[in-house]
Design a protein that fits this description.
Structural class: alpha+beta
Pfam families: Beta-lactamase
CATH superfamily of the largest domain: DD-peptidase/beta-lactamase superfamily
Strand content: 15-25%
Strand order of the largest sheet: 3-2-1-16-15-14-13-12
Number of domains: 2
Oligomer: single chain
Radius of gyration: 21 Å
Helix content: 25-40%
Protein name: Beta-lactamase family protein
Number of strands: 17
Number of helices: 13
Length: about 425
Amino acid sequence: MNPDLRSLEAAIDRRMLMRMAVVAGLGAALTPRLALAVADPDLMPNLRAMVKRWVGPGKLPGVLVSLGLPGKETQYIARGTEAFTDPDPVTPDSLYRFYSMTKPITGMAAMQLIAEGRMGLDQPLYDVLPKYRTMQVQVVPDGSVTKLRPAKTPITMRHLLTHTAGLGYSIVQQGPIKDLMEEKGLVPALLSRKKIPGLFEGTQAPDLATFADRLAEIPLVYEPGSRWSYSMGLDLMGRVIEVVSGQPFDRYLEETLLGPAGMISTSFQVPEAAAKRLTTDYFAIDGTLIPVDPGADSVFLDKPPFPFGGAGLVGSPRDYDRFLRVLAQGGMIDGKRVLSEAAVRVGMGNLLPVGVDRSGMFGSPSDFGAGGRVGTGDEKGMFGWAGAASTIGMVDAVHGLRMQYFAQFMPYTALDVEDDFRKALKADVMALLEKQ
């Protein structure tokens, strides 16, 4: 199997925290002046040059970045088209695969239920899903799936939200447990209508209930609460939400968060009427971008087997900015409350269990909240996450700022776009500071 193709399986992987730490590395000391930097487009020459530099033949079809300020319209920089073969220009209303940027949305939906007292942060998962009462843990992580020991600690809602439940992930684990998960259709996301050799070619679990039941039969990789390890915790949280709320997960999410926040273009399935706005996702092989999920024939035009709470949403940069605004404004947007202040405040704070092993968390030291990285030190107030197809969404809650980057290629490490974006943003801000 082509080694580059194998890397597609790891597009959502342990390096996700490193991405977030690098992008967040602007530092809180720069953010007060950032409002001035983006108020005038002429003060963003490096970002504009960066976007221009990465768009064109042999590069990317289109790139979009944005910066949002308290009380001001979001500033977008967009260039190129939605695909190499699509003449439609990239705009804030183009549709992108959020992939793991879905996780903070699911996390905040769960935090709302917790804030309402309908479930508890440290409530055992088996209270809601009884099949998780007696779990087995691998004696050797990623080793034998028959040499097991009983779990000492029950999985809690906190664990699911913070990737500390000990659950595996078919794009992270190796060996027999990875094979077992794929055999049971426990894969984390949709990729393409095409069958891609070397990747999962089986049948995914048909619904969330079946997904949750089958996942309960898989051994844990780690003892619950002991170690941060990227997992299917937020996908399983989707099932928890629908049991606790009494509604299908996708309907609850639409009625509780997406709809009230005005995220009118975000869903688990792209309506036919909106298909023209859907970008094409590419995979980089030997420096060449190969379309893996063309917008006109995307798997996201089909009804998914179930709503993937960890990686299933498709939406626009304008929509995701509205989600970030809700977080930056303590649960409010356009003068109305979407999430409780407590849900947002606690969800963007450190939810990691005391004493958890953080060695799997790459990048600068950080905490973790409801589905997203929580900055510490100079990055205090930063919260957000990234997606496998080269997307990032973050909020600086201290200064009410929002930052986004959108392209559509996998793996994100194939090109240095994100690092270039960080440098360009920092250069523009530093240039402004020198003028003061």
